[in-house]
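User: I'll paste a sequence; please echo it back and then give the predicted structure.

Assistant: Echoing your sequence first, then the prediction.
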Amino acid sequence: PIAVSGFEPVDILESVLNIIKQSNEGTFKVYNQYKRAVSKEGNVKAQNLVKKYFRVCDFEFRGLGLIKDGGLELKEEFSAYDASKKFDCTVQSKNESKACICGQI
């Protein structure tokens, strides 16, 4: 169960209540408690900007490994603004810490 919540105490309480109800009923859906700010369509302007400037790419997540089409990177026409290319950055993989529980979550 997931609840999109506002920040007021009553918002948080209503969201927690909905998650508990979903858990008790065995249902799993996204509940939008924050309808005054979040629409079903989401932030269309932001979505269009992401589509304009980014492309989908494979991405390695801590605790999960490589996820095909799991990330975003700047499109080639905006590579002049890509710090990883401008500064020749490389990301080094490290062995997971035994204390890290990201993969379990």
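The chain is about 30% helix and 25% strand. The chain has a mean pLDDT of 91.
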